[in-house]
Amino acid sequence: MPTPAAAIPVDILDETTAHIHGEAIPLPAGVDLDQAVLSHLQLEAAGLGHAVSACIDDRRYGVKATLTVHPDGTTATHTPAPADAPPPADQTPIAGIQALAIRGHLDAAIQGADQHLIQLTNHPGLGPTHWQTLEAAELRAHLAWIKEDYTYAYRSWSWISATWREQLGPCPRRQVHDHNQCRRIAITTRNAAAAWARLPPQDALAAGQEILELLAHNSGSTTTPAARDIQALLKRLATHGS
Predict the structure, then answer these.
(1) At what angle do helices 131-146 and 179-197 cross, to 10 degrees?
(2) Residue 129 confidence (pLDDT)
(3) What is the pLDDT of residue 16?
(4) How many other β-carbons are positioned within 10 Å of the β-carbon of residue 91?
(5) What pLDDT was estimated at residue 200?
(6) Buried-state track 39-68, b at ≥16 Cβ within 10 A, e below 16
(7) What's the predicted TM-score (pTM) here?
């Protein structure tokens, strides 16, 4: 009986850096890092002719998961086997939610993230657009992505990116601006676009103009590579749906 292949180590270090098999993968301009990682794994599965398993260690959010990628490009996400001991009680809410996800309690992490968001949103000194609330919402959206709830992820990232844009202001080209603030807007906008691309075809078509308007508003341009990719995908979806 053949020995199962070892799981592929995938380490996502930050918003622009990921290592697969211990080696950094290239990230073309305008490409979402999560999509680049997935594309690399899909190519590897197609080349081998059988499904591959990848151990994802996403250090951006302190989340770990196991991803199975089949030769046809389809995927399935799994979480590690639950541990018996509860997470430490002295962590902050965000750290506790991350610990739950790492230990394999993804549903509990999502429930905790939802409760934490409600508390922050209703807090008289914070509210729905406070930076702490937005960061908690980013974690919740990422958990939805891991859960393959792309509708929730798309709606969340769309709102988060638009709200960061309103909070931080525009990033006009050829003018001085805060690079870190612009990077935050760009990352959340890319995440919204990546989640949109995973929606069922009819839902993606229905939200097509919405995501294009979001990209145009946040980037200040209607001709970004991401916008062109979305327009091309919308044409293909419309053609297949007719």
Answers:
(1) 30
(2) 92
(3) 85
(4) 13
(5) 92
(6) ebbbebbeeeeeebbbebbbebbbbbbbbb
(7) 0.66
Q: β-strand 75-78 against 63-69: which pairing, if any?
A: antiparallel
Q: Using the Cα atoms of residue 157, residue 162, residue 165 and residue 171 in order, give the sign of their dihedral.
A: positive
Q: Which of 236, 233, 183 is nearest to 212 (CA)?
A: 233
pLDDT tens-digit readout, 104-148: 788 898 999 999 999 999 988 889 999 889 989 998 998 898 888
pLDDT at 205 over 60: yes
Say how far apart CA 120 and CA 127 lie, in whole Å: 6
Query: How many C-beta atoms surround the C-beta of residue 103 within 10 A?
Result: 20
> What tokens were used for 211?
């995501």
- Nearest in space to 181 (alpha carbons), one of 193, 196, 163, 195: 163
